[in-house]
């Protein structure tokens, strides 16, 4: 069964042509579309060259269908939250919204998985160390 990613608000499918498509706005006010790979922990994002993000800059992400703001904050770190369906199980996927901060969490009913070099910094916040 194929993995799918969808909006937590409108449940619209965000996963098209093997990319997660989100609308984004940088702290500097630039707006654009960003395509993320579904390989969690891979932080190469595809976007138009004019959509420039500075290292450390905060980027807000929105559902391109209902325009809901996908932000959630944990421990003063902003994350983008999308839902993932994988082999029939629903997960919350949290991506860091700070450019260059590599932290992704996949939260299931009983499990937390962390991806990315910077993920450890936040592990204590969840009240449990992620079980890999
Ligand atoms: Zn939506």
Commentary on this structure:
The mean pLDDT is 88. The two termini are 22 Å apart. The strands form 2 sheets. Strands 1, 7, 8, 9, 10 and 11 form a 6-stranded antiparallel β-sheet that branches. Strands 2, 3, 4, 5 and 6 form a 5-stranded antiparallel β-sheet that branches. This protein has one domain (4-126). Helices cover 0% and strands 42% of the residues. With 132 residues, it is mainly beta. It binds zinc ion. The site of zinc ion (ZN) has 8 residues, from loops.
Pattern of helices and strands: EEEEEEEEEEE
Shape: globular
Distance between the termini: 22 Å
Helix content: under 10%
Oligomer: single chain
* Ligand set: zinc ion
Tell me the fraction of residues in β-strands, as a range: 35-45%
Uncertain regions: pLDDT < 50 for 5+ in a row? none
Secondary-structure topology with pairs:
Elements: E1 4-6, E2 15-16, E3 19-26, E4 31-36, E5 45-47, E6 59-62, E7 71-74, E8 77-86, E9 89-96, E10 104-107, E11 112-115
The structure holds zinc ion.
Task: Characterize this entry briefly.
By secondary structure, the chain is mainly beta. The protein is 0% helix and 42% strand. It has one domain.
Looking at this protein, list some descriptive labels.
about 130 residues, about 0% helix, mainly beta, six-stranded antiparallel β-sheet, five-stranded antiparallel β-sheet, binds zinc ion
């Amino acid at each position: 069964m194929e993995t799918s990613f969808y909006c937590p608000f409108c449940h619209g499918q965000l996963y098209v042509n093997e990319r997660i498509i989100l609308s984004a706005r940088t702290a500097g006010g630039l707006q654009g579309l960003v395509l993320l790979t579904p390989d969690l922990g891979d932080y190469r994002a595809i976007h138009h060259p004019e959509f420039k993000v500075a290292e450390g800059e905060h980027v807000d992400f929105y559902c391109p269908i209902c325009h809901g703001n996908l932000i959630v904050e944990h421990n003063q770190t902003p994350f983008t939250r999308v839902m993932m369906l994988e082999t029939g199980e629903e997960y919350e996927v949290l991506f860091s919204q700070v450019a260059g901060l590599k932290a992704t969490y996949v939260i299931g009913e009983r499990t937390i998985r962390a991806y990315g070099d910077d993920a450890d910094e936040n592990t204590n916040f969840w009240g449990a160390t992620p079980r890999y």
